Protein: histone acetyltransferase
Amino acid sequence: MMRAMEEMDQENIFDGLSSVVEGCRLPVKMRKGDEWPLAEIISIKDVNGVTYYYVHYVDYNKRLDEWVTEARLDTRKIQYPRKDGQSNAGTGVNTPIKKLGSGTTTIPAVPVPAASSRPSSPVGPPELVNGNAFLAAALNKKMNRKRKAPPPVHTVPNHAEPAPEVPVQVVRTTKSTSLTIPDVPIAAEGDLSEPPSSDRRLTGSMVAHNDDIVTRMKNVEMIELGYHRIRPWYFSPYPQELIHFPCIYICEFCLKYRKSRKCLERHLAKCNVRHPPGNEIYRKQSISFFEIDGRKNKVYAQNLCLLAKLFLDHKTLCYDTDPFLFYVMTVFDDRGFHIVGYFSKEKVSTEDYNVACILTMPPYQRKGYGKLLIEFSYELSKFEGKTGSPEKPLSDLGLLSYRSYWSQTILEILVNLKPVDENERPQITIMEICELTSIKKEDVISTLQNLNLINYYKGQFIISLSKETIDNHMQAMSKRKIRIDSKCLHWTPKDWSKRSK
Ligand SMILES: [Zn+2]
Structure:
């Protein structure tokens, strides 16, 4: 009897597994923890008689995708792909990947959620109206009047903005500091929208790229880079003959790759550099930045892109690194300058982008280095006397870092604002915030809205800073131990539009 049941169970399991096909969905146990989230089968392979399934956890970032064995599949709850050929939502299967040049990341559009998810009705006492709602309502009216032309694609809803040139006043109250924006001509144009992505930068070397099954799957098991062994997150087009090895050994200084430690050791005996190429344009304590011209140091730049792609999802590689500069951040010790992260930047950006692609290497993440990279990118913009913004859309982690950087940088200014006249409220315009920080106007406004600081009071826009906001800000700033010191940046911006790139 027992035997019969066992046999039956086995048969059921067998049947269940044979029905697992690419495209179907079922609960799969994650590597860490006991969760069994819904996952999609991307690919199936047999290795020495064992079947492996490449799964994508539907509601999770692709970096968690992995090969699993049947033991981690729950075939009782299997769902089959829709017959109409439509993919189920949320898999990223049909997420278009664009080829945008070596220094470039493209990630699916992430709308600024705070602005749209907030209640649109006025909050608080009747005389204190939520500024966002007021602005949104005003903008809607204006937009409706203007809505003859087709609406822009990717418009962030409810995204109105106060006129940048209108000064903002600071109100001191017993409990908190407030800022007011005096009487408001609303100049909102709703221009926070992105241009349609298909129009963007698909020129020259930047060729559209078809998403295929190969580039959706991680292909490199492990890399060794200096002191670190790192498990990659995403596909990267390392040479086919290399990816069959259990680990790719990368020279941390010139970023050349080898198939074994022995080969790397042979390379290191010949490789004399102990720092990235290019000019060291910043040094403070152990932190340095190197500026690398993608045209002059092509091999390094391409190797950097290959390495970065392992940790950047929607970046597709193109070997034309010429139009980009690469800023590599390193930490120094007695063995050399070790790469911590980098960002790339177009030599000439027609859209005021000051970062194309940005990455902190995983071993250095969550230590404040990402914010340091961002801070440095704005420091360069300050030297150039321009405002800038990262290329959109940002990755999930990138967006979090930028939001946090923008909030802290803008709050730092608001909190320390002093009134010109003692009896008056301190005033500042949004344009002045842009000039002080080099943060682009749209990002300043969206940050103020995300922080929910804008209110409308007796005919004026007010930015009120509660004690809680200030305390939280002070606490956050105390954690930012490493900062960019502009005195340590030795750099003169070049006008690349006037020279050969
Ligand atoms: Zn080397």
